[in-house]
Write a structure and sequence with these properties.
Number of helices: 3
Order of helices and strands: HHEEEEEH
Strand order of the largest sheet: 1-2-5
Radius of gyration: 19 Å
Structural class: alpha+beta
Number of domains: 2
Shape: extended
Largest sheet: 3 strands, antiparallel
Strand content: 25-35%
Distance between the termini: 22 Å
Number of strands: 5
Length: 96
């Protein structure tokens, strides 16, 4: 599902214009971005949670040249699926 698909789905289900649905989706994503930028945790019950994980510096290798390089420490957003969603997905696999 793309962002455009989500906007169209919200527009149809909520009975609102596509412009209003786009504003809703953009507001949600902007709020999530701001929370992660402040290093806050985002938890959506039944769906999952987003949190920044910190990774330390390490020595890597450029696969093209074989040169050893220093990789800087970094933070990356990490998504952990919620229990309810995980169970629903596994139910679908069992039905097949």
């Amino acid at each position: 599902m793309t962002k455009a698909d989500l906007i169209n789905l919200i527009s149809e289900k909520a009975g609102i214009t596509r412009v209003k649905a786009e504003a809703v989706v953009n507001t949600i994503f902007d709020s999530m971005n701001e929370a992660l930028m402040k290093n806050d945790r985002i938890e959506i019950r039944g769906f999952g949670s987003f949190v920044n994980r910190e990774y330390g510096a390490y020595k890597g290798r450029n696969p093209r040249t074989g040169e050893i390089i220093e990789v800087e420490p970094k933070k990356l957003p990490f998504f952990k699926v919620g229990k309810e969603l995980k169970e629903e997905i596994n139910k679908l696999d069992k039905k097949k």
